[in-house]
C-alpha cells in the first residue's frame, strides 16, 4: 500500500518498496533498476540531479542505488555528508547550495537525499531555499526518520545551540520506504524509532500500541507487519499536519515528548558525546516527562514505560551520564526547555495528554514542577 496526500492542493506520495521492487542488494555486477531510478527517469529524465547521501550508510545500499541512478542520469552529481547531529549546521547547508549554483541547477532540477533526520532536514531546507523551491525526493535510512521525520515538511538546521532554530516548511515530492534499508539497520537504530510510534499511538487513539506488543514480529523485521505500523504512524502525522501546515494549531500535538527531548539532546550536545543519545531515545524519555508533569505516574505513564523497557530502551539518563556533574546537567536541561521553539513569551509549551487521543497544548508555568520532573524522571 502506498500513500498519497495533499497539502495546499499539491500532491505528495510515500512508496513502500519490498524486496522485488525496492533497492536491490545482490552480488551481481549489474543490479536491476530500482523503483526509485525507474520512477525518476520516467518523469524527469532530462533534468539535472544531485544525490546527497549520508556517508555512514551501508555501502551495499549506496553502491547499487548509485549504479542504477547513473544509468538513468549519466551526469548525476554526488555529495556525501556525515549524518551526525553536529553536522546539522549552516556549513553543510551551504555545501549543498554551492553544488546547486556550481552546476547551474534550474527550478525543475532534482535533489535526491538518502539518510536519516539530519540529511533529510538539511536537504529539505536547501531545496526550499534554492530558487524558492527545488524538487526533493527522499529515502529515509533510520527508523526514526522512516517513522516520523521523512514527511511533514519541517526542514531545518541547528544554530547557536538551538535545535531546528533556522528552517522552513517544505515537503519532499516523494518518499521511498525500503525493506532492504530496514533489514540493514543496526539494532539500536532500529529500536530508536519505537518512541515515535508510541507518541502516535497516544496522541491519536489507534491500534499502534497494541501492534507494538507483538515484539516478535517487530524484532524480526517482518515487512508486511512493519508496513502496517509505518502506515499508521505516517497517516497519524498526516492527520495532524495536512490542515495545519505552519503549526499554528493541532499540528503541535506531533511535538508530544519533544519539549523535554530537545532539552535533553541540547544538554548532551558536546563534541565528545553529540550522538551519545539517539533522538528517538530522547523522545521516549521526553514522553514520560510530559505525562509525569501533567498527571504524575498514571496508566499512560506506566504503559509507555513498560513498552520502552520491553524493547530495552532507556527511560532515564542514568546510562548516558556517568562521571558527569549532575547538578550542572539538570540546570542545563531546565534552561534548554525555555529555548523550545513552541514557547509563547517566556513560557515553554508542551502537549498535555488527558488520555489516549485527547490532547491539549498548554504553557508550562510551574517552574518547580519542571525541576521536579527533571529530578524524578530524567535522573
As residue ranges, the low-confidence spans are: 25-33
Superfamily (CATH H level) name of the largest domain: Dehydroquinate synthase-like - alpha domain
Task: Please give the CATH class of the largest domain.
Answer: Mainly Alpha
Number of helices: 16
Percent of residues in beta strands: 15-25%
Number of strands: 11
Percentage of helical residues?
A: 40-55%
The fold-level CATH name of the largest domain is Dehydroquinate synthase-like, alpha domain
The overall number of domains is 2
The second-level CATH architecture of the largest domain is Up-down Bundle
Distance between the termini: 42 Å
- The chain-level structural class is alpha/beta
What is the CA-atom radius of gyration, in angstroms?
20 Å
Q: What is the 3D form?
A: globular
Largest sheet: 7 strands, mixed
Order of helices and strands: EEHEHEHEHEHEEEHHHHHHHHHHEEH
Mean of all residue-level pLDDT scores: 90
Q: In what order do the strands lie side by side in the largest sheet?
A: 1-2-9-6-5-3-4
Overview of the structural elements:
The protein is α/β, with parallel strands linked by helices and 379 residues long. It folds into two domains: 3-185, Rossmann fold (3-Layer(aba) Sandwich), CATH 3.40.50; 186-379, Up-down Bundle (Dehydroquinate synthase-like, alpha domain), CATH 1.20.1090. Helix content is 45%, strand content 16%. The chain has helices spanning 35-44, 59-72, 90-102, 117-129, 143-149, 179-183, 187-191, 194-203, 208-212, 215-219, 223-241, 258-267, 279-295, 299-310, 326-337, 367-378, and strands at 3-7, 10-17, 49-54, 77-81, 110-115, 135-140, 157-159, 162-166, 174-178, 349-355, 358-363. A seven-stranded mixed beta sheet has the order 1-2-9-6-5-3-4, with helices on both faces. Strands 7-8 form a two-stranded antiparallel ribbon. The protein has a two-stranded antiparallel sheet with strand order 10-11. A hairpin with a 2-residue loop joins strand 1 (3-7) and strand 2. Helix 3 (90-102) crosses helix 4, helix 8 runs parallel beside helix 13 (279-295) and helix 8 packs antiparallel against helix 14. The chain starts with a strand and ends with a helix. Residues 25-33 have low confidence and may be disordered.
Amino acid at each position: 500500500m502506498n500513500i498519497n496526500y495533499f497539502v495546499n492542493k499539491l500532491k505528495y506520495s510515500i512508496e513502500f518498496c519490498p524486496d522485488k521492487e525496492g533497492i536491490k542488494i545482490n552480488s551481481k555486477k549489474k543490479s536491476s533498476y530500482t523503483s526509485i531510478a525507474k520512477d525518476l527517469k520516467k518523469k524527469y529524465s532530462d533534468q539535472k540531479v544531485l544525490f546527497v547521501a549520508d556517508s555512514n550508510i551501508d555501502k551495499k545500499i549506496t553502491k547499487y542505488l548509485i549504479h542504477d541512478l547513473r544509468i538513468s542520469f549519466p551526469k548525476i552529481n554526488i555529495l556525501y555528508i556525515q549524518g551526525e547531529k553536529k553536522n546539522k549546521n549552516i556549513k553543510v547547508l551551504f555545501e549543498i547550495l554551492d553544488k546547486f549554483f556550481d552546476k547551474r541547477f534550474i527550478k525543475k532540477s532534482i535533489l535526491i537525499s538518502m539518510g536519516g533526520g539530519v540529511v533529510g532536514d538539511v536537504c529539505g531546507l536547501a531545496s526550499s531555499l534554492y530558487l524558492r523551491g527545488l524538487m526533493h525526493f527522499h529515502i529515509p535510512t533510520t527508523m526514526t526518520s522512516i517513522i516520523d521525520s521523512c514527511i511533514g515538511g519541517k526542514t531545518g538546521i541547528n544554530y547557536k545551540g538551538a535545535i531546528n532554530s533556522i528552517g522552513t516548511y517544505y515537503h519532499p515530492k516523494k518518499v521511498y520506504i525500503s525493506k532492504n534499508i530496514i533489514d540493514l539497520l543496526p539494532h539500536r537504530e532500529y529500536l530508536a524509532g519505537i518512541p515515535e510510534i508510541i507518541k502516535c499511538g497516544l496522541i491519536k487513539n489507534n491500534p499502534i500500541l497494541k501492534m507494538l506488543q507483538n515484539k516478535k514480529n517487530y524484532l524480526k523485521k517482518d515487512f508486511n507487519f512493519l508496513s502496517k505500523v509505518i502506515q499508521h504512524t505516517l497517516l497519524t502525522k498526516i492527520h495532524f499536519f495536512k490542515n495545519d501546515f505552519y503549526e499554528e494549531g493541532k499540528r503541535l500535538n506531533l511535538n508530544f515528548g519533544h519539549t523535554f527531548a530537545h532539552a535533553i539532546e541540547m544538554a548532551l550536545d558536546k563534541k565528545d558525546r553529540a550522538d551519545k543519545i539517539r533522538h528517538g531515545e530522547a523522545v521516549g524519555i521526553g514522553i514520560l516527562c510530559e505525562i509525569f508533569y501533567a498527571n504524575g505516574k498514571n496508566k499512560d505513564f506506566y504503559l509507555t514505560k513498560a513498552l520502552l523497557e520491553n524493547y530495552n530502551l532507556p527511560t532515564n539518563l542514568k546510562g548516558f551520564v556517568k562521571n558527569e556533574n549532575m547538578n550542572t546537567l539538570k540546570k542545563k536541561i531546565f534552561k534548554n526547555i525555555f529555548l523550545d521553539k513552541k514557547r509563547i513569551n517566556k513560557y515553554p509549551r508542551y502537549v498535555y495528554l488527558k488520555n489516549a487521543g485527547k490532547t491539549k497544548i498548554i504553557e508550562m508555568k510551574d517552574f518547580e514542577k519542571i525541576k521536579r520532573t527533571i529530578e524524578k524522571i530524567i535522573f
